[in-house]
Structures are given as C-alpha cells and as structure tokens.
Amino acid sequence: MDNALHHANSENSPSCGKPPNRREKRRTETRERIVQQALRLFSERGVMATTVEDITNAADVGKGTFFNYFPSKEDILTYLCQSQMGKIKEFVSKAIHSTESMDQVLYRLASIITEEFADCPALARSLLVPFFASDSARQRMAADLKKDRKMLAGVMAARQKRGEIRDDLTPTELALQFQRALFGTTVLWSLDPSKPLPDCLKEMSDVLWSGIRSQTSRQNQ
C-alpha cells in the first residue's frame, strides 16, 4: 500500500530542477483537490463514515482517477503524514544551525505539525480515529512518530552542545517530551476548542522550554 502511494506521489512530482509541465501541474491540482475535499468530508462526517464515492463526487473526479492517486481513503492520511514529515525535515535542518530562540523553535515546529487542522477541531478528532481503529494504522503512526523524533533529536543535540538545554536527558528523550506535550495539547484542544490552538501551542512551548532549558541559559537571560 505504501509503495503504491509512493509510486503515485513520484509520478505526480516534477523532476528535480525542472519546472512542472502542464500535465504534471494538472495532476498535482487534481491530487490536491481530492485531498482538500477528503479533509472537508472527514471533518464533517469522520473518516470511517466517508466513502471513496463521497470524496470523488465532492472532488468531481471518477473513482478510477481517485485510485490513480490513492489506493484507499486511508492512504490520504498516509499522504498527509508524509507531507508533514517533509516539512518537519526541512524545518529541522534549518533549526539545527539557526540562532532563533529554542522556545520559538518549539512553537514554530508545533505550528507546522498541526497546520492542517489548526482551525478545525472536528478535523483533528476525525484524523485521530483511524490510527486507533486498527493495529496497522497504529503501527504506521508509531513508525512515523519515531522518524519525527529522530529528526527533532538532532535539534535537541545541537542546542545541548550550545549549552541552551539541560544535558541530564538524552536528545531522544527530550524529543519524546515534545511529542507527548504536543499530542496532549492537540487532543485536549480538539475536545474543548474554547481557546485557539495557536494560543495553546504557545503556552505548551513556553512551559516545555521552561522545563528543558539549562541553568546556564537561565543565568545568561
């Protein structure tokens, strides 16, 4: 399934260094239309109650076209995860060498990870359900989180070397604390969105930073 999705994505991506031609641009637009309509339906009905036919009708494409891009509706979630991982990788590669304060790094990273549903708690809830509904989905989610954790650990390690972050925890343990804080914040916000998610993420990143910053960093403030 993942190989099929990767194949579909590679076909829809322009060659490295070359501008997309008209056909590639049209394929990209079709894929994104399918994704956006699927997300809208997921937020309104939930992933489990949304059918492929619902998505194709909303996106105004045939089922054959849908399956050219996604083997199943669940693979849209896989596509979103892969897309987010790409954004995280790009951000982390810059954050390792950035002079930006660590609290801002934590906040911006949290914002990137949650940007797809930042203004729609119903979508956040709907996207979580499939990952708890089957063993294969949970395993895939756990594997993706492990990859994200490894990337974030690189930032933690770099900031430890600068003396900004406490060194009694490993970079991986620090990255795990970030994931735990972000997951809890997101779930609680999706259940009670009385406060905007960006505000919740800012509070979370400030509290987390207060807990992981080094004594030297506090003294130099």
UniProtKB/TrEMBL annotation:
It comes from the Bacteria. Keywords: DNA-binding, Transcription, Transcription regulation. Residues 28-88 form the HTH tetR-type domain. Residues 1-30 are annotated as: Disordered. One of its GO terms (molecular function) is transcription cis-regulatory region binding. Residues 51-70 bind DNA. This is Transcriptional regulator. It comes from Desulfomonile tiedjei (strain ATCC 49306 / DSM 6799 / DCB-1). The lineage of its organism: Bacteria, Pseudomonadati, Thermodesulfobacteriota, Desulfomonilia, Desulfomonilales.
